Amino acid sequence: MKTYTFTEKKDTRSGFGAGMAELGRSNPDVVALCADLVASLKLDTFIKENPDRFIQCGIAEANMIGVAAGLTLSGLIPFATTFANFGSSRVYDQIRQAVAYSNKNVKICVSHAGLTLGEDGATHQVLEDIGMMKSLPGMTVINPCDFNQTKAATIAIADYEGPVYLRFGRPVVPNFTPADQPFEIGKAVHLNEGADVSIFATGHLVWQALEAGKILAEQGVDAEIINIHTIKPLDKEAILKSVYKTGCAVTAEEHQMNGGLGDSVAQVLALNHPAPLEMVAVNDSFGESGTPDQLMEKYGLTAASIVAKALAVIQRKK
Amino acid sequence: MTTNELTKAASQVRRDIVRMVHGVASGHPGGSLGCTDLLVSLYFQAMELKTDDQDSVVFDMSGTGEDMFFLSNGHISPVLYSVLARRGYFPVSELATFRKLDSRLQGHPATAEHLPGVRIASGSLGQGLSAAAGAAYGKKIRKDSHLVYCLMGDGEQQEGQIWEAAAFIPHRKLDNLIAIIDFNGQQIDGPTDVVLNNRDLGAKYEAFGWTVLHMDGNKVDEVLATLKAAKQASGQGSPICIIMKTEMGQGVDFMMHTHKWHGTAPNNEQLTAALAQLEETLGDY
């Protein structure tokens, strides 16, 4: 098992803020919109340096999405930002008609996705957004794993023409992606070579997958670990190549099982190369209040869960 | 164009509308007929549109250096399509494909088929004013002094998003935006006052910070004069909202004074009766 180290833990939303700060300096067409959550989205630097390219929309997310769509006409690149729940489920029809169906170059960038929002509870912990967004024709869906990758993804999507949903979160997590690693939309990142089981993880679960890989190695299991930062378009080639070799897979994500990465991988496998698959995800349940760590533990989104599913799926090969 | 010429163009557009919805036995003639005089006035007179050396309109998605129009109540697509075709954005013959398979003239306006003249999809109500606000904001950022127009329905004012946009636009001083509300008092389930009373729309927009004008949307002279007044009121710090009184089904006697023709197509006899009231002025498609 390849060793991964990190110098510090950082929140992915700060990676977004750092990416926006850089875009503010490098791309004059980038405009930021926010629905009364500037500090949560770490937009302070962008706003300070580019006050004329920031649009405060107030607590009115539906209008924000429409304004963003209208802004694209003049060649501007709007980044519409809020919490993941309010930037997906609350405004699904606006995204569907004004952004996806109209093919507008809007970047919907949302923080506080998933259980790790913590104490606010289920009203704010969206666990269905990947499913909603990936089912929209033409929508790109990205869920990076750490600070550096979120920053790189933020910068990369400005150069991509088309609607994007970029999802990140609040808790601090190990920052291990090399700062100079280029972000390629739709191209999975291979983290560890292995022959016994493929682990496909996204977002905050990528580090948990690496931790699981270490535990599995101690038990003599050779796990292949792949970071699927882009849920759509999915890197089918990387998934199939890996499962051709290992013969089974585990997916891991901070999202509902229905509609998440696991669903996407299951579809690829069922259509091309049926193989045993286990999923680490929230199983048809809302979240609740608690600390991020308590919630990840309670809902089974941990390295230990990935290990257990990996051992189980390997058994199913026989 | 003279008022007489605009009135003649409007007659042809009304013929197109009833023929289009009859041709596919679906669509929304009522609101389309009511807004015909406005759209003809906008596209043939009031709006500054990009043209080539031969004075033919040229569609540019960005809308840079020209006025832009957004149809929020997308179900009145027949009037938009007819006016766009008659203005030269696409062949008039294409009106015959309205709502049919593989057509660029979708039931509600869309950009996916690349129909010249349409910049964003509409149909799910309440969204057009926000898109127009974004376009107007874009013009401010790009320092383009042209105007953005947005037509909405009065029933549509029941959508919450409208009021998000209604607050946003004056707050951001988008004084290059002219919103027009088709105040025909009717919606699918009946009179607007009965279904969900909008109360005093003019007073509401005024309270939100808009400059409010009123006009009879079925009198071309009054439409032109009010649009001129709106243009003069633009650029002074406040957006403009025109409450436009219209008659749903205007121009076809049996379609007027009722909500029944909101989304109903005429049969063969009704088509004949309607066309008898509408002079063919520019040639049927």
TrEMBL record, chain A:
<dbReference type="InterPro" id="IPR051157">
    <property type="entry name" value="PDH/Transketolase"/>
</dbReference>
<dbReference type="InterPro" id="IPR033248">
    <property type="entry name" value="Transketolase_C"/>
</dbReference>
<dbReference type="Pfam" id="PF02779">
    <property type="entry name" value="Transket_pyr"/>
</dbReference>
<dbReference type="InterPro" id="IPR029061">
    <property type="entry name" value="THDP-binding"/>
</dbReference>
<dbReference type="InterPro" id="IPR009014">
    <property type="entry name" value="Transketo_C/PFOR_II"/>
</dbReference>
<dbReference type="InterPro" id="IPR005475">
    <property type="entry name" value="Transketolase-like_Pyr-bd"/>
</dbReference>
<keyword id="KW-0786">Thiamine pyrophosphate</keyword>
<comment type="similarity">
    <text>Belongs to the transketolase family.</text>
</comment>
<protein>
    <submittedName>
        <fullName>Transketolase family protein</fullName>
    </submittedName>
</protein>
<feature type="domain" description="Transketolase-like pyrimidine-binding">
    <location>
        <begin position="10"/>
        <end position="175"/>
    </location>
</feature>
<dbReference type="Pfam" id="PF02780">
    <property type="entry name" value="Transketolase_C"/>
</dbReference>
From TrEMBL, chain B:
<dbReference type="InterPro" id="IPR029061">
    <property type="entry name" value="THDP-binding"/>
</dbReference>
<protein>
    <submittedName>
        <fullName>Transketolase</fullName>
    </submittedName>
</protein>
<dbReference type="Pfam" id="PF00456">
    <property type="entry name" value="Transketolase_N"/>
</dbReference>
<keyword id="KW-0786">Thiamine pyrophosphate</keyword>
<feature type="domain" description="Transketolase N-terminal">
    <location>
        <begin position="8"/>
        <end position="273"/>
    </location>
</feature>
<dbReference type="InterPro" id="IPR005474">
    <property type="entry name" value="Transketolase_N"/>
</dbReference>
<comment type="similarity">
    <text>Belongs to the transketolase family.</text>
</comment>
